[in-house]
């Protein structure tokens, strides 16, 4: 791994909707096709406690999620106060985090560690924008997901968008060590490397 090529590791997960819709192969295929290297792979039925440890607990992250929900509601003229009893982004963020944990523990998921140049950024790009309506064609979310944040917020559930992908080196490091023992990560050389 040379610093010149910026080789790094990231973590992604095929969420319950990706698994139950039969998209495991399609999603994995896109990662391999890009030339990124899968170095750990397993299906698991997560517990809520495992999901709670997976997602950040800091106030900044929770407030960011709540803020996104507030702006979605504003855009679609949803009365946040009537629906959630608060307009505080931190309180709303905690609520959305809870929806997310329930969703992620609702069916098996596939957890994956990927290695390659700029792996974090590349997997985020392959995944596409968080919100299906904003995800470009050619991305996993843009090609296969159709859920609406407005509907999800109204129904009190997480947006179904097929994949999770680490956003920062800190998230990646935390998630890889949370989901995989070091001996279950298998570095190797891809042909042509
Ligand atoms: P990401 O998955 O693209 O990294 P984040 O903002 O980190 O997006 O949000 C984590 C997950 O929380 C999203 O993938 C989505 O499933 C869910 N989510 C985010 N914002 C909302 C919302 O406003 N309502 C419902 N679910 C949301
Ligand atoms: Mg995220």
UniProtKB/TrEMBL annotation:
Pfam families listed in its UniProt record: NDK (PF00334)
E.C. numbers: 2.7.4.6
GO MF term list: nucleoside diphosphate kinase activity
Tagged with keyword Kinase: yes
Entries under InterPro entries matching the protein: NDK-like_dom, NDK-like_dom_sf
Domain Nucleoside diphosphate kinase-like: residue ranges: 7-187
Cofactor(s), names only, from the UniProt record: Mg(2+)
Signal peptide: none
Claim: Transferase is one of the keywords in the record: yes
Keywords annotated in UniProt: Kinase, Transferase
Tree of life domain: Bacteria
Family: Belongs to the NDK family.
Name this protein carries in UniProt: nucleoside-diphosphate kinase
Organism: Candidatus Uhrbacteria bacterium RIFCSPHIGHO2_02_FULL_57_19
